[in-house]
Design a protein that fits this description.
binds zinc ion; 8 helices; single chain; globular; alpha/beta; Rossmann fold; 7-stranded mixed sheet
Protein backbone atom coordinates (compact mmCIF):
# COMPACT_ATOMS: atom_id res chain seq x y z
CA UNK A 1 0.00 0.00 0.00
CA UNK A 2 1.46 3.39 -0.98
CA UNK A 3 1.33 4.99 2.45
CA UNK A 4 3.48 7.89 1.29
CA UNK A 5 0.55 8.92 -0.87
CA UNK A 6 -1.47 9.84 2.20
CA UNK A 7 -2.05 13.35 3.38
CA UNK A 8 -3.94 16.34 2.20
CA UNK A 9 -2.04 17.85 -0.70
CA UNK A 10 -3.22 15.41 -3.36
CA UNK A 11 -6.54 15.63 -5.12
CA UNK A 12 -8.19 13.63 -7.87
CA UNK A 13 -11.16 14.36 -10.13
CA UNK A 14 -13.05 11.60 -11.94
CA UNK A 15 -15.07 12.72 -14.99
CA UNK A 16 -17.74 10.36 -16.27
CA UNK A 17 -21.02 10.36 -18.18
CA UNK A 18 -23.57 8.63 -15.95
CA UNK A 19 -24.15 7.51 -12.38
CA UNK A 20 -22.54 4.04 -11.98
CA UNK A 21 -19.63 4.74 -14.38
CA UNK A 22 -17.48 5.82 -11.43
CA UNK A 23 -17.98 2.59 -9.49
CA UNK A 24 -17.74 0.30 -12.50
CA UNK A 25 -14.71 1.99 -14.04
CA UNK A 26 -12.49 2.77 -11.07
CA UNK A 27 -14.32 2.35 -7.75
CA UNK A 28 -11.41 0.51 -6.13
CA UNK A 29 -8.82 3.19 -6.82
CA UNK A 30 -11.20 6.01 -5.87
CA UNK A 31 -11.93 4.32 -2.53
CA UNK A 32 -8.25 3.60 -1.91
CA UNK A 33 -7.25 7.21 -2.66
CA UNK A 34 -10.00 8.57 -0.38
CA UNK A 35 -8.94 6.22 2.42
CA UNK A 36 -5.39 7.61 2.17
CA UNK A 37 -6.59 11.20 2.52
CA UNK A 38 -6.61 12.22 -1.14
CA UNK A 39 -9.47 14.63 -1.86
CA UNK A 40 -11.56 12.78 -4.44
CA UNK A 41 -14.17 14.64 -6.52
CA UNK A 42 -16.56 13.30 -9.12
CA UNK A 43 -18.22 14.94 -12.10
CA UNK A 44 -21.09 13.14 -13.82
CA UNK A 45 -22.15 15.17 -16.83
CA UNK A 46 -25.64 13.62 -16.97
CA UNK A 47 -28.12 12.24 -14.44
CA UNK A 48 -28.37 8.96 -16.41
CA UNK A 49 -32.11 9.43 -16.52
CA UNK A 50 -32.65 7.00 -19.40
CA UNK A 51 -31.01 4.08 -17.60
CA UNK A 52 -33.21 1.09 -16.92
CA UNK A 53 -35.86 1.41 -14.26
CA UNK A 54 -37.75 -1.06 -12.10
CA UNK A 55 -39.33 -2.65 -15.19
CA UNK A 56 -38.38 -2.83 -18.83
CA UNK A 57 -40.70 0.00 -19.91
CA UNK A 58 -39.93 2.72 -17.39
CA UNK A 59 -36.57 4.52 -17.25
CA UNK A 60 -35.08 5.14 -13.82
CA UNK A 61 -35.41 8.91 -13.98
CA UNK A 62 -32.94 11.54 -12.77
CA UNK A 63 -33.87 11.61 -9.08
CA UNK A 64 -33.43 7.88 -8.49
CA UNK A 65 -30.09 7.87 -10.24
CA UNK A 66 -28.81 10.94 -8.43
CA UNK A 67 -29.72 9.40 -5.08
CA UNK A 68 -27.96 6.17 -6.03
CA UNK A 69 -24.88 8.10 -7.16
CA UNK A 70 -24.67 10.06 -3.93
CA UNK A 71 -25.00 6.82 -1.94
CA UNK A 72 -22.21 5.22 -3.98
CA UNK A 73 -20.04 8.30 -3.57
CA UNK A 74 -20.50 8.01 0.19
CA UNK A 75 -19.34 4.39 0.11
CA UNK A 76 -16.26 5.32 -1.94
CA UNK A 77 -15.38 8.31 0.25
CA UNK A 78 -15.82 10.85 -2.55
CA UNK A 79 -15.72 14.32 -1.03
CA UNK A 80 -17.64 16.24 -3.68
CA UNK A 81 -20.10 15.18 -6.38
CA UNK A 82 -21.11 17.46 -9.27
CA UNK A 83 -23.93 16.34 -11.56
CA UNK A 84 -24.65 18.38 -14.69
CA UNK A 85 -27.91 18.45 -16.60
CA UNK A 86 -26.78 17.33 -20.03
CA UNK A 87 -29.21 14.86 -21.60
CA UNK A 88 -28.44 11.17 -21.11
CA UNK A 89 -27.71 9.55 -24.46
CA UNK A 90 -27.16 12.84 -26.25
CA UNK A 91 -23.57 13.77 -25.36
CA UNK A 92 -22.14 13.31 -28.88
CA UNK A 93 -24.63 15.97 -30.00
CA UNK A 94 -24.02 18.47 -27.21
CA UNK A 95 -22.08 21.41 -28.60
CA UNK A 96 -18.48 20.29 -28.08
CA UNK A 97 -17.23 23.66 -26.86
CA UNK A 98 -19.99 23.85 -24.23
CA UNK A 99 -19.32 20.40 -22.81
CA UNK A 100 -15.59 21.06 -22.81
CA UNK A 101 -16.11 24.39 -21.00
CA UNK A 102 -18.35 22.74 -18.41
CA UNK A 103 -15.72 20.09 -17.69
CA UNK A 104 -12.90 22.64 -17.61
CA UNK A 105 -14.81 24.75 -15.08
CA UNK A 106 -15.03 21.80 -12.69
CA UNK A 107 -11.34 21.01 -13.18
CA UNK A 108 -10.48 24.63 -12.35
CA UNK A 109 -12.72 24.65 -9.26
CA UNK A 110 -11.52 21.33 -7.82
CA UNK A 111 -7.86 21.87 -8.82
CA UNK A 112 -6.93 18.18 -9.04
CA UNK A 113 -3.42 16.75 -9.45
CA UNK A 114 -4.92 13.90 -11.44
CA UNK A 115 -8.00 13.63 -13.68
CA UNK A 116 -9.40 10.21 -14.59
CA UNK A 117 -11.85 9.71 -17.44
CA UNK A 118 -12.78 7.12 -20.09
CA UNK A 119 -10.31 5.95 -22.72
CA UNK A 120 -10.99 6.07 -26.45
CA UNK A 121 -13.06 2.88 -26.17
CA UNK A 122 -15.48 4.37 -23.66
CA UNK A 123 -15.23 1.06 -21.69
CA UNK A 124 -17.60 -0.62 -24.20
CA UNK A 125 -17.99 1.92 -27.04
CA UNK A 126 -20.86 3.84 -25.43
CA UNK A 127 -21.20 7.08 -27.48
CA UNK A 128 -21.71 9.21 -24.35
CA UNK A 129 -18.55 7.76 -22.83
CA UNK A 130 -16.54 8.45 -25.96
CA UNK A 131 -17.82 12.05 -26.00
CA UNK A 132 -16.70 12.51 -22.39
CA UNK A 133 -13.29 11.07 -23.27
CA UNK A 134 -12.90 13.56 -26.12
CA UNK A 135 -14.17 16.63 -24.29
CA UNK A 136 -12.21 15.91 -21.11
CA UNK A 137 -9.04 15.43 -23.15
CA UNK A 138 -9.66 18.77 -24.86
CA UNK A 139 -10.44 20.48 -21.54
CA UNK A 140 -7.17 19.27 -19.98
CA UNK A 141 -5.12 20.12 -23.06
CA UNK A 142 -6.49 23.67 -23.05
CA UNK A 143 -5.15 24.26 -19.52
CA UNK A 144 -1.54 24.08 -20.83
CA UNK A 145 0.94 24.56 -17.97
CA UNK A 146 -1.86 24.51 -15.38
CA UNK A 147 -3.10 21.11 -16.54
CA UNK A 148 -3.33 18.17 -14.17
CA UNK A 149 -2.10 14.70 -15.13
CA UNK A 150 -4.72 12.85 -17.17
CA UNK A 151 -5.39 9.12 -17.02
CA UNK A 152 -7.76 7.02 -19.09
CA UNK A 153 -9.47 4.10 -17.38
CA UNK A 154 -10.05 0.92 -19.34
CA UNK A 155 -11.16 -2.51 -18.31
CA UNK A 156 -9.11 -5.70 -18.47
CA UNK A 157 -10.47 -7.72 -21.41
CA UNK A 158 -12.55 -10.61 -20.13
CA UNK A 159 -13.14 -9.11 -16.68
CA UNK A 160 -16.90 -8.79 -17.09
CA UNK A 161 -17.14 -12.18 -18.86
CA UNK A 162 -15.60 -13.65 -15.69
CA UNK A 163 -18.34 -11.96 -13.64
CA UNK A 164 -21.07 -13.38 -15.89
CA UNK A 165 -19.49 -16.85 -15.72
CA UNK A 166 -19.31 -16.58 -11.94
CA UNK A 167 -23.00 -15.64 -11.82
CA UNK A 168 -23.83 -18.67 -13.98
CA UNK A 169 -21.92 -20.95 -11.58
CA UNK A 170 -23.67 -19.45 -8.54
CA UNK A 171 -27.08 -19.79 -10.20
CA UNK A 172 -26.40 -23.41 -11.23
CA UNK A 173 -25.49 -24.24 -7.64
CA UNK A 174 -28.57 -22.63 -6.15
CA UNK A 175 -31.36 -23.02 -8.70
CA UNK A 176 -30.17 -25.35 -11.47
CA UNK A 177 -33.03 -24.66 -13.89
CA UNK A 178 -33.08 -20.87 -13.52
CA UNK A 179 -31.60 -18.63 -16.20
CA UNK A 180 -28.53 -16.84 -14.79
CA UNK A 181 -28.25 -13.05 -15.11
CA UNK A 182 -26.20 -12.22 -18.19
CA UNK A 183 -25.90 -8.43 -18.31
CA UNK A 184 -23.66 -5.93 -16.52
CA UNK A 185 -25.54 -2.80 -15.41
CA UNK A 186 -27.86 -3.02 -18.40
CA UNK A 187 -25.10 -3.87 -20.91
CA UNK A 188 -26.05 -7.16 -22.53
CA UNK A 189 -22.67 -8.08 -24.05
CA UNK A 190 -20.15 -8.68 -21.28
CA UNK A 191 -17.45 -9.26 -23.89
CA UNK A 192 -17.73 -5.65 -25.07
CA UNK A 193 -15.95 -4.41 -21.94
CA UNK A 194 -12.27 -3.84 -22.61
CA UNK A 195 -12.40 -5.82 -25.87
CA UNK A 196 -10.27 -3.38 -27.86
CA UNK A 197 -8.85 -1.25 -25.06
CA UNK A 198 -5.39 0.19 -25.52
CA UNK A 199 -2.72 -1.37 -23.29
CA UNK A 200 -2.56 0.12 -19.78
CA UNK A 201 0.47 2.00 -18.49
CA UNK A 202 -0.68 1.61 -14.88
CA UNK A 203 -2.16 -1.57 -13.39
CA UNK A 204 -3.59 -1.31 -9.89
CA UNK A 205 -4.51 -4.28 -7.69
CA UNK A 206 -6.99 -2.74 -5.28
CA UNK A 207 -7.26 -5.77 -2.98
CA UNK A 208 -9.61 -5.07 -0.10
CA UNK A 209 -10.88 -1.93 -1.84
CA UNK A 210 -12.53 -4.13 -4.47
CA UNK A 211 -15.20 -4.94 -1.87
CA UNK A 212 -15.80 -1.21 -1.49
CA UNK A 213 -16.16 -0.99 -5.28
CA UNK A 214 -18.74 -3.80 -5.16
CA UNK A 215 -20.64 -2.09 -2.34
CA UNK A 216 -20.70 1.16 -4.34
CA UNK A 217 -21.92 -0.71 -7.44
CA UNK A 218 -24.72 -2.21 -5.34
CA UNK A 219 -25.94 1.31 -4.51
CA UNK A 220 -27.02 1.59 -8.16
CA UNK A 221 -30.05 -0.64 -7.47
CA UNK A 222 -31.98 0.51 -10.53
CA UNK A 223 -29.30 -0.94 -12.84
CA UNK A 224 -29.26 -4.38 -11.20
CA UNK A 225 -32.13 -5.99 -13.12
CA UNK A 226 -30.66 -9.17 -14.72
CA UNK A 227 -27.20 -8.01 -13.58
CA UNK A 228 -24.49 -10.60 -12.95
CA UNK A 229 -22.83 -8.30 -10.39
CA UNK A 230 -25.72 -9.04 -8.03
CA UNK A 231 -24.30 -12.54 -7.49
CA UNK A 232 -20.78 -11.39 -6.58
CA UNK A 233 -20.06 -11.65 -2.84
CA UNK A 234 -17.59 -9.39 -1.10
CA UNK A 235 -15.06 -12.20 -0.68
CA UNK A 236 -15.14 -12.71 -4.47
CA UNK A 237 -14.57 -9.02 -5.17
CA UNK A 238 -10.74 -8.92 -5.06
CA UNK A 239 -10.58 -11.76 -7.62
CA UNK A 240 -13.37 -10.53 -9.91
CA UNK A 241 -13.20 -6.77 -9.48
CA UNK A 242 -9.75 -6.11 -8.00
CA UNK A 243 -7.68 -5.30 -11.09
CA UNK A 244 -8.02 -1.83 -12.60
CA UNK A 245 -6.29 -0.54 -15.73
CA UNK A 246 -5.20 3.03 -16.47
CA UNK A 247 -3.24 4.70 -19.23
CA UNK A 248 -1.41 8.00 -18.99
CA UNK A 249 -2.61 10.50 -21.61
CA UNK A 250 -0.16 12.36 -23.81
CA UNK A 251 -1.85 15.64 -22.86
CA UNK A 252 -1.83 17.07 -19.34
CA UNK A 253 1.05 17.25 -16.87
CA UNK A 254 3.76 14.67 -17.62
CA UNK A 255 5.78 14.79 -14.39
CA UNK A 256 5.48 12.49 -11.40
CA UNK A 257 1.82 11.81 -10.60
CA UNK A 258 0.89 10.41 -7.22
CA UNK A 259 -1.27 7.59 -8.54
CA UNK A 260 1.78 5.96 -10.13
CA UNK A 261 2.63 4.85 -6.58
CA UNK A 262 -0.40 2.52 -6.70
CA UNK A 263 1.18 0.55 -9.53
CA UNK A 264 1.58 -3.17 -9.19
CA UNK A 265 5.26 -4.10 -9.62
CA UNK A 266 5.81 -5.20 -13.20
CA UNK A 267 6.35 -8.83 -12.42
CA UNK A 268 3.59 -9.58 -9.93
CA UNK A 269 0.20 -9.20 -11.64
CA UNK A 270 -1.13 -12.74 -11.44
CA UNK A 271 2.38 -13.97 -12.13
CA UNK A 272 2.48 -12.07 -15.43
CA UNK A 273 4.16 -8.83 -16.35
CA UNK A 274 1.92 -5.90 -15.45
CA UNK A 275 2.79 -4.03 -18.60
CA UNK A 276 3.53 -5.21 -22.11
ZN1 LIG B 1 -22.12 5.28 -18.51
Amino acid sequence: MPEETGGGPHSLLAVFAHPDDESLACGGLLAWCAALGVRVSLLSVTHGEHGQGADSRTPAGPDVRETELRDAAGVLGIAEVTILDHADGMLPWVEAGQLEADIRAVIRRTAPDVVITFGEDGLYWHPDHIAVHERTTAAVAALHEDAPALYYVTMPAGAMRAVVNHAADVTAGRTPHAAPPRSILGVADADAFGALAAAPTLVVETGAFAARRLRALTCHHSQFRDCALALVEEHDAPRLLGTEHYRRAVVGAQGDAFIERFAVPRTTVGGHPAQP
